[in-house]
Structure formats: structure tokens, C-alpha cells
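Can't paste images in this forum, so I'm doing it all in text. The chain is below; anyone willing to post the predicted C-alpha cells underneath?
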Amino acid sequence: MLRRLPLALLLTLATPALALAADEFPRGPGFYYSLPKLILVLVVYFAWIGTCRWVSQDSKAQQVETFITWNTVMAGCGLLGLVVVWLLPWFFVSYPALLALYLTPALLYVSLRNKLVPDEEKVLTERHLKGLVEHYLKLRMRVKEKGGGEVVAGPTVRFISKTGRGDAAASVARAAKSRGYRAATEMVYDAIRLRATDIHMEPTRDEMSVRFRIDGILTPAQPFSRQMGDGVVNIFKVICNMDITEKRKAQDGSCSAEVDDRMVDFRVATAGSVAGEKLVMRILDKGKQMVSFEKLGMEGKLREQVQQLVTQPHGMFLVCGPTGAGKSTTLYACLNEIDRFQKNVITVENPVEMQIDNVTQIEVNPKAGKTFASELRSILRQDPDVILIGEIRDQETAEIACQAAQTGHMVFSTVHANDTCTALTRLIDLGVQSFTVASAITAILGQRLARILCPHCKVKYKPNADMLRKANLPADKIKFFYRPPDPSERREGAGEDGEAGPGAGCPHCGGTGYRGRTGVFELLVVTDKMKDMIREDPNPNTIRQEAVKNGMKHLQEDGLRNVIEGKTSIQELLRVCK
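Text version of the structure:
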């Protein structure tokens, strides 16, 4: 009924115009309507219809709990504005009232949703408006030069060297004069705007290919010519204080950049190949907000368990998973649950990815002799209550971490392992005694990141009964699953509610069918019986069977919850939980 309402209103407004054809209709000379005034009203009317549709879709996508109220407010204010225009004979009074009744709730909603989303997803900001101008009008904003002339303004990216020497500013100034500096800033700006976490520059015979890792998947970007690409690589090597004459040995460095008034850090690594020098940049956006367990995608019961574990006075809480699984983000969420005003919290990271209030954060620098092990020995003399170790990768770090957990400290860390049970044996493989591991470990959280289906273009379909049966899901209760649109589907393909949707040409997800990622978790809580098993015979299969008896859900089980809720697809779950 609500969807027919705009058409009904338009017909109602047009009814007097239709009556012009009747001779008995009382009218004066000329037209009954002022055509310019009618056009102005119709512009606001169609803008109101589009805004209502956007608020309805966006409030669901951003999980704004009061979306029904916002729909009601938007519809009610618009209807009231149309009534005011219809009843009041003074257009200079009624039209501003119509604009106010349309814009006020819309701007209030924008203000609310901008507080809930990252900077790159905020709307009606200077950055968003510039992006619209560049996208639709293909224009670049012009700024005044000191000499009085006009130049086209490039991306607002200002690189900052982190060499630690006095000539850091000179390095950036020298790079800024190099050919290809504008191309380098545009590439970085596009990567950050598209929410990329990594930039890959890979040389081929004829060109330098560029790929962005977005939501965990490498996506092709605009390539450079070979000469331009080599110049861009040299620019980043100069800024990061690398040797530009050495193109065969692997090198690494770091730098920062001020992008749209916020700081972003980069880890840069180069390696020689048969085709030339390859460069990879990891983007560490410090402007991101502090995350919580709820935003990570943890369901209620699991969230309560983890909150109880991380607030214990001592022990070791490990997070495991492959590279890029979001382990560091989960550790920051753990620190967010701790009272950092009453506890001394110290972190040792490589690098520091997010600034946290009331936390002493130390960055590892192996070139300067600052390793995880050496820094751990130092901070244990600083009376810490909570210690966060960025990664356990060697025997010395593992042993010191286990000893700290046994001497009254709460230790958080990560380890590279495929699942929670393998993480236990990983510590033993590093050289830590099994009885030490059994006494120190409190719990291990395994995780993956699954892409979230775009709410604007995901497609509803009936799942196969055999597949449901194999997954132990009730076929009679599960009616629909969701999937991304096929490339062959047109822009007007089936959408979230089974009606016309953006399909493969969706501007919200770039045609991928996914936007953003959520966590898939499994939690192993080490019980007394498991500690005995670890001391006597640390067999991963035996420990896994005991954990399942105690209620542990595998990654696939937690992922099926997201599939049933329509957050992700079964294909995406199978991809990340192999």
C-alpha cells in the first residue's frame, strides 16, 4: 500500500488539471496551474520519494534499530509538506515550508547514520560531495596558486617520511618533484576511498599492473606504463628511506600520509622478480573507530563468553587465523572491554595500527634492536596488568608470554594457525614446554573474515533440500538463502526483497555483490581436563573432540548462522572456511 501512495498523491495533485477539460469547472482566464511553481513542487516531490527509498534501504544496511520510525517520519513530513502547498494560497510561504519539512528529517537521519559508519561511508561531507562531482561531472576542483593562476587540485594526500632523521622532510620534497608523484598520490587516494587494505604493484613486460585488496579480494585497478610504474616505486622507496639503487634484494620500510585531514600509515615492502621490482603497501588507517565485539559479528552468547575471559585478572587469550583474518582488530576490541583507567595496559606491536587512549603502545623495530622478546622483558619491569603482544612468532617471545600469564598478568596475543586446536600445538612446536602451555593458556579464539552481501543487490533463492540436509538444517523452516547477483543478470535484477534491484551494476558494491566483512568465530575454552590432555599427549584431534563435548562450535557452524540471517552467502562461507 505504501508503495502505491506516491502515485496516488501525484494523481491527486493532477486532478484539478484534468478538470480543466470540463466547461463547467469554475476557472479564470489562462491556466489553472503556474507551470514554474508546479515544476518546483514536482522536483521536491521526486527528491522526497528518492530520499524515502534511500533511508529505508540504508537504515537496514547500517542496522539502525529505529528504521521503522525513520520511515514514518520521512513519509509523514513529506505528506504534511504537500498538504501545506495544496492548502496555503501563498507560494512564497508554502514552498519554504515544504522544503523544511522534507530536509529536516532527512538531514537528521544523515547526522545520525554518519556517526555509525567509517569516514569513507559518510554522506554529504566535503569528501563525499567532491567524489560526486568527480564521478558524475568528470571535473577536478580548481584552486588558486600563489602566483594567481588556477590549477587543477589533485587528491589531498601529503606524505610524511618516518626515517627518524633530520632529512625526512627533504626526502618527501625530493620525491614530490619526481615524475609520477601525482600518479602515486592518486593511486593511494583511490585505494583509501575504495576501502582497500593493500596495494600491489606488479611489473610485467609492458606495464606495471596495480591491484587493490578490497574485502580480502584482489581487485584490478588502473595500471601504469612500465616507465611510470618504476618511477612510482622509486618515489615510495625514497619516502620510506630505502635504497633506490638496490632492485634485487627485498627491502621494507614505512611512511605516513595525511589524507583528508586524517593520518594513515603504510608498511611498504619491495622484492625483486624476473620482470622487475614489485611493491606491496599495507594500509593502516588510524582514523578508524574503536571496534566492539558486536561490530565484529559475534553472536550474543559467544560475546558474553569472550567478555568474561578477557576481563580475568591473569591468563593468556590467543587469537588465531591466517594473515588478514582480523586478529589485531579483535585484540583491540578486547582492550576496549578492559577498564584502562584502573589497569596498566602496555602493548608491543609491529606496527601500531590503532591509537588507544590510556594505553602505552610500543612499536617494534628490529633494525634498532627492538624485538618482541626484548621489549617484553623491559615492560615486565613496568608493573603491567595487561600485556598485548602483536604476534608470537619465535620461541623466546612465546616463553616470556607464557611466563607472564603465569605470574599474574593478562596476556593477549595472536598466532598463525588454521584453527584453535592447531594453535596449541603451534606453541609447542615453537619450543615451549607442554606443561607451560597448559598452565598459561586460558582460551583460544579462531576466526575468519567473510564478506557481507550488499543489501542493495543481493538475490533471494530457494536452497537445495539435499544441501540443507547435509548441513543439518531444517528444510521446512528455512525458506530462502541469499547470494550475490550473477554477472549475466542485468542492473534491474532481483534484489533483496525480490523486486527490482541494482544487480551486477550496483554502485554501492562496485558490482561485486559484497560490501564489508564480518567475523566467523570458534572459541576453545581450556578446561582442567584439557590441561591434563595437553600435558600428557597434546593431540589436536583428541583436544578438538573434548572441546566439542564442552559446546565449542566450529567455524562452519558459526558461519551458517550468518548465511541463515542473510548476511553472507554459502559460497563465501565455503571459500573462507576451507
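The chain has three domains: 5-116, 155-285, 293-450+518-560. Residues 5-116 form one domain.
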